[in-house]
Amino acid sequence: MYNIRACDYVPSPHPATSDRIIAAHYYPAWKKNATGVHRGFDDLHDYPERTPLVGYYDGDSPEVADWEIKWALEHGINCFIYCWYRKKENMGKPLTAEDLRLGESLHEGFLKARYASQMRFAIMFEAQNKWGGSDPEDLIQHLMPFWLENYFSRDNYLKIDNKPVVFVYDYQHQLRDGMGGADTQKKAFDRCRDLAREHGFDGLIFAVEYRKDDPSAIDDYRARGYDFSFAYCWSIKEPNPSDERVVELQLDKIRKKMEEIPDFFVPTAACMWDPSPRFVSMPHIYTPQNQTSLWKLDPNHWRKLLAEIRTLTDALPEDSVGRKILMLDNWNEWDEGHYIAPSLEFGFQYLQAVREEFTERDNLPDYRLPETLGTNSLNSQWDVPDLGEKPLHCK
């Protein structure tokens, strides 16, 4: 009431200790007019429950990144995996940060954040047809030099056994087709590993997104030089599944993968799926007809899912990649409808479940918000709607 700033900046994080890498997928689409396919926060005016607790924010803000780093670390999440897009017209050419789609959150936000050194990060190469892919020469001559200089050389880039990890989303096979046959792709990947060794690393790890159950596809990915597979999210086809059923279906998928490819699989825990805002902004991809299964785990069932995954992965050998990493879907897919970042509807409950199940709980999280401390200068781009008496779409 006296208009006093309690803090000059985001308070320092007090991380919780975890025995593994807890990596949340990160969607960097929250800069005004940046996506080219949807309207960002402007698609959420009818979904006020999805409002981040920081409010609508500028995705290229280091202050936003520091709030996210703080909240993640204090609940055991110690790595963000940034969706990484290359512009189509840049294929076959030298790469700069300006040649990235949605690169602002990583390059202008996270990498310039005060607390970034405390948080690991990685990239997931989104080799979708709408964006840029690569071929062997381009991968070796253009992508690898950029990755080495801008990412791998940083102490906080995700490495396992001194090997940087590159995640690949090749759902439409643009990268596979650009690489040619399996032998050609493996040779290109192996050359990238050699380049990494020349820069002081012990190699390079390539991980491929694959959530289906075709053993021949796994054999092909192995032949192409990938080191393990993961799911960005889990597809659940049953209409209106109960929370118990969603937990059951995810665990069934994870158990099956662990039994069939224990050396080639990292588990993912998914919290929800409801892309309803995109029915308006992206009707050519998302419609009520092709998205019949909309679901949202309440925080208690989310915690149950995490506890079961913890039990399963604890039984793996210590050197197993599935014992070293857990992936969380997703930090901030606000409009596609899967997010664990603090929100108006759920507060910090999803993060609290992660802390309770995967950390030693040896810290005291700080639940003060930017507006409480008087540090909030996070939004200079978005028009914030007057929600009035608009009801929340709470479960």
Features:
395 residues; disordered C terminus; two-stranded antiparallel sheet; alpha/beta; TIM Barrel; 12 strands
Quick overview:
With 395 residues, the protein is an alpha/beta fold. Helices cover 31% and strands 13% of the residues.
Shape: globular
β-strand percent reads: 5-15%
Residue runs with pLDDT of under 50 for 5 or more positions? 391-395
Question: How large, in whole angstroms, is the Cα Rg?
Answer: 20 Å
Task: Estimate nothing, just give the exact number of structural domains.
Answer: 1
Number of helices: 12
Descriptive report:
- This protein has 395 residues and is α/β, with parallel strands linked by helices.
- The protein has a single domain (21-373), classed as TIM Barrel, CATH 3.20.20.
- The protein has helices at 62-73, 104-109, 136-152, 174-179, 182-198, 215-223, 243-260, 278-281, 299-314, 321-324, 349-358, 370-373; strands at residues 21-26, 79-86, 100-101, 120-126, 159-160, 163-169, 205-209, 228-230, 268-270, 272-273, 295-296, 325-329.
- Strand 1, helix 1 and strand 2 form a beta-alpha-beta unit.
- It starts with 20 loop residues before the first strand and ends in a 22-residue tail after the last helix.
- Mean pLDDT is 94; it is low at 391-395.
Protein topology:
Elements: E1 21-26, H1 62-73, E2 79-86, E3 100-101, H2 104-109, E4 120-126, H3 136-152, E5 159-160, E6 163-169, H4 174-179, H5 182-198, E7 205-209, H6 215-223, E8 228-230, H7 243-260, E9 268-270, E10 272-273, H8 278-281, E11 295-296, H9 299-314, H10 321-324, E12 325-329, H11 349-358, H12 370-373
Parallel strand pairs: 1-2, 1-12, 2-4, 4-6, 6-7, 7-8, 9-12
Antiparallel strand pairs: 2-3, 5-6, 10-11
